[in-house]
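This section describes the prediction task in plain terms. A model, or a person checking by hand, is given the sequence of a single protein chain and must write out its three-dimensional structure as a string of tokens. No templates, partner chains or ligands are provided. The sample shown here is typical of the held-out split.
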Amino acid sequence: MTHLLTLEGQLRLVGAALIVMGAFHAVLPRLIGWPSDLAGTTLLTRQVSYAHLFFIALTCVLLGLLPLLLAPDLLAGGRLGTVLLAAQTLLLGPALDLSSSRCSHRSCGAATGCGPPPTSPCRCCGPG
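The expected answer:
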């Protein structure tokens, strides 16, 4: 358990989480009802939607394999490891920031999201 507390262990854990997230994309369309939603669209729209999903999944898996398999090399302090970790941070950092900027409503107990500002103010975080 203590190996998960090291930087190498945490890097491997993030890599495993990214691989799981990429694999989850295989079942995601059925879970959110894409086949029925996309049935009324054009063939091109369906193909673009599934191609986009595939490339997001592939990116997650490939970016997860890097720290899972090469964590010691990434942390060795060389230029390549530094550049790769910085690139992953720049790629995934904004996504994490955007997902955490929405109100979670844990403190106010509201059942739904804030919605677009300023039409529905939230009791815990104010408008929008």
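For orientation: Confidence is low (pLDDT under 50) at residues 115-119.
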